[in-house]
Design a protein that fits this description.
Blueprint: E1 5-8, H1 10-17, H2 21-30, E2 38-39, H3 41-47, H4 52-62, E3 66-67, H5 90-94, H6 98-110, H7 121-132, E4 136-140, H8 143-150, E5 159-162
Parallel strand pairs: 1-4, 2-3, 4-5
Helix pairs in contact: 1-2, 6-7, 7-8
Length: about 160
């Protein structure tokens, strides 16, 4: 997955907290990438609870990730140019626009999610922020839902990996 931007959904965070081997291996490999793994605030909110063990494990993961448009979060890019200027990732810095939120509504309205599932705006947001990055990999425990949303976009370089 070298050169790919990793985007985590709630299932990936849970897999990291539970120390699932594949999730941990992916996350460890991402520590050497120039772009930190991407989290959305709503994804973090889906998982965060006041359990001390959970807070400790998620805190470790958060130190390696960027939470898009969250004050106090790590910068998306780890590298700093020789001029001393921090390199920024435009999709991570820009976040979502009004057009993106309208597009999310279209994704939710047209995606064919698995039977007995309801459209999930957070999963759709994960797919859209991944689509804004070139060569993104979505790390998820629920590839069917993510695939349903990604099929609504024309983004052939979007990769989904199950953890």
């Amino acid at each position: 997955m070298s050169g790919h931007v990793l985007v985590y959904d709630a299932g990936m965070l849970i897999a990291l907290v539970d120390r699932k081997a594949k999730a941990v291996a992916i996350h460890e490999a991402a520590k050497s990438a120039s772009h930190r793994p991407v989290l959305l605030g709503p994804v973090l909110a889906q998982v965060w609870r006041q359990d001390p063990a959970l807070v400790h494990r998620l805190g470790d993961v958060l130190g390696d990730c960027t939470v898009i448009q969250a004050r106090g979060a790590q910068f998306a890019m780890r590298t700093v140019s020789h001029t001393g200027v921090t390199v920024q990732c435009i999709p991570c810095t820009a976040g979502f626009t009004l057009v993106d939120y309208k597009r999310l509504g279209q994704i939710l309205g047209t995606a064919r999610v698995p039977a007995k599932k309801r459209p999930d705006p957070v999963d759709a947001m994960v797919v859209l922020i991944a689509a804004h990055h070139r060569h993104a990999v979505i790390c998820t425990s629920d590839p069917e839902d993510i695939t349903a949303y990604s099929r609504t976009l024309n983004k052939p370089d979007l990769v989904i990996t199950q953890v």
